[in-house]
Design goal:
heterodimer, A: alpha+beta, 5-stranded mixed β-sheet, 5 strands, 15% helix, B: alpha/beta, 8-stranded mixed β-sheet, 6-stranded antiparallel β-sheet, 13 helices, 34% helix, globular
C-alpha cells in the first residue's frame, strides 16, 4: 500500500463504497462531488447533519452517508 | 355513519390502524390537493376511495395526451378537449363516488389567492411540479398550523416527507432556499409512471394517518424505483433559527407582482390573468379568422404556429412552444389583449 492510499478512509455514500482522504469534511466531500448544495440534505450515520455544520464534520472511517436530493417534478 | 358507508369502508374499518372512529374522521375531513398531475391525480383517487369526500382540487393546467401515461384519473377524451385537470379530476371522482364533494379550482395558486382557496382544509397534499408553490404552501401551512405532505418525483427517483407544524421540522428547515439553475424535470429526465404512484401512495398513507389522529412517521422517504432501493431517514428537529417555522417570517405570503412563469417540464410559459375574466365565446369569434380555434366554456385553444395558446376563462393563459416570457407576453397582448 502506498502512502497516498494509506491516508484514505473508506466510507459508504448512497450505498456505494468510496475512498476519501482521511479528515475529509462533509463540505469538502460535496465540493469534490460538485453537488448543488441548495437542493440536498446530508444524512451521516442515520441522522441529517445541519448544513452549517457540514464544514466541521469530519467523515469517520466506515461512516455511512446519504445525499438526499429533493426534486421538483410531480 | 350509515350502513352503506359501513359496508363501503368495511375493509378499512377492520384494519386496526383506522377502525370505525378513524373512518368517521376521514369522512369528516376536508383536504386540498395542490397540483392534479401525476402525484395529485393519484392522491385524489386514493383519498376519495378511502372516504375523504371533501376535496379541494387546485390545478392551473389542462390534460394532454402525454399525461395519460402516469396521470391515472384522466382519459383520451379529457386530452382531446384539453379539459382543465381540476375539472377532469372532479368529473372522474364523481363517477367513483356520487357523494364526492370535489371543489375544482382552475387557477395558479399564489400569495393572492391561497388564503381563500385553502381556507378551512385540514391537510394539504403536494402534487405541484415547482418549488415556488411548495415554499408558498410551506409558509401558509406553518402560519395556519395545517399539516402538508411534500412529494416530488423525476425519472426513477422520488422523495416525500410529512410536515406537521409544531411537531416536525418544516420544508424550509431542511431546504432554506430553492435550488437555482437548471433542474431535472419530467420533460428532460422523463418519469416512470409507477414512481409517481409510489410517492403519492406514501403521501396518502401519511395523510390518512394524520387525518385518523395517528402519529405519522416523521421520516424522509426516498425511492430509487429502478434500483429497487428505498430509504427512510428520521426528520431532523425543527430549527429555532428557521425563517419560516422558527422566526415565523412568511415572506412568500406577501403579495407580489405576478410574473409570467416557465412551466416545469414543459416548453411553455404561463401568463397570469392580466385583465380578469375573458369571454371565451367572443374571443373565439375574434380569433377564428386568424387560425384554428377550439373552445369550450372553460378554456380556449388557439394555434399560432409554432405556438399554441390555451386561454382560461379567468384570463390566465399558457403559451406552448416557448420558454421566453417576452414572446409569451407578446402573444397574449396580440391575441387576448393586456
Amino acid at each position: 500500500m502506498d502512502l497516498a492510499m494509506a491516508n484514505n478512509v473508506t466510507i459508504s455514500l448512497n450505498g456505494d463504497a468510496m475512498a476519501v482522504p482521511s479528515g475529509t469534511t462533509v463540505a469538502a466531500l460535496l465540493q469534490l462531488l460538485h453537488v448543488e448544495t441548495a437542493q440536498i440534505a446530508v444524512e451521516v450515520d442515520g441522522n441529517v447533519a445541519q448544513r452549517e455544520r457540514w464544514c466541521e464534520i469530519s467523515i469517520a472511517p466506515g461512516a455511512t452517508l446519504e445525499i438526499v436530493r429533493f426534486v421538483g417534478g410531480g | 355513519m350509515n350502513e352503506r358507508d359501513r359496508d363501503r369502508y368495511s375493509r378499512q374499518i377492520r384494519f386496526s390502524g383506522i377502525g370505525l372512529s378513524g373512518q368517521q374522521r376521514l369522512l369528516d375531513a376536508r383536504v386540498a390537493i395542490v397540483g392534479c398531475g401525476a402525484l395529485g391525480s393519484f392522491q385524489a383517487g386514493a383519498l376519495l376511495r378511502a372516504g375523504v369526500r371533501c376535496l379541494v382540487l387546485v390545478d392551473r393546467d389542462y390534460v394532454e395526451l402525454n399525461n395519460l401515461q402516469r396521470q391515472w384519473l384522466y382519459d383520451e377524451e379529457d386530452a382531446a378537449c384539453a379539459r382543465p385537470k381540476a375539472e377532469a379530476a372532479a368529473r372522474q371522482l364523481l363517477r367513483l363516488d356520487a357523494e364526492c364533494k370535489a371543489e375544482p379550482v382552475v387557477a395558479h395558486l399564489d400569495a393572492g389567492n391561497i388564503g381563500e382557496i385553502l381556507d378551512g382544509v385540514h391537510l394539504i397534499l403536494d402534487g405541484t411540479d415547482n418549488f415556488d408553490t411548495r415554499y408558498l404552501i410551506n409558509d401558509f401551512a406553518v402560519q395556519r398550523g395545517i399539516p402538508w405532505i411534500y412529494g416530488g418525483a423525476v425519472g426513477c427517483y422520488g422523495i416525500t416527507m410529512p410536515i406537521v407544524p409544531g411537531s416536525t421540522c418544516c420544508f424550509a428547515c431542511l431546504y432554506p432556499q430553492p435550488p437555482s439553475g437548471v433542474q431535472p424535470t419530467c420533460e428532460t429526465g422523463g418519469v416512470v409512471n409507477v414512481l409517481t404512484s409510489s410517492i403519492a401512495s406514501f403521501q396518502v398513507s401519511a395523510a390518512l394517518q394524520l387525518l385518523c389522529g395517528c402519529q405519522s412517521d416523521s421520516c424522509i422517504t426516498t425511492i430509487d424505483l429502478w434500483g429497487g432501493r428505498m430509504r427512510q431517514i428520521p426528520q431532523p428537529a425543527a430549527r429555532a433559527d428557521c425563517e419560516v417555522c422558527g422566526l415565523r417570517c412568511f415572506s412568500r405570503l406577501e403579495g407580489r407582482r405576478r410574473e409570467p412563469v416557465n412551466l416545469c417540464g414543459r416548453n411553455a410559459v404561463q401568463i397570469h390573468s392580466l385583465r380578469g375574466p375573458v369571454d371565451l365565446l367572443m374571443l373565439k369569434k375574434q380569433l377564428l379568422p386568424l387560425g384554428e380555434v377550439r373552445a369550450n366554456e372553460l378554456a380556449l385553444r388557439f394555434f399560432v404556429p409554432p405556438y399554441e395558446m390555451t386561454i382560461f376563462h379567468d384570463g390566465r393563459a399558457i403559451v406552448k412552444g416557448t420558454t421566453d416570457a417576452g414572446i409569451a407576453r407578446n402573444l397574449y397582448a396580440r391575441y387576448v389583449g393586456s
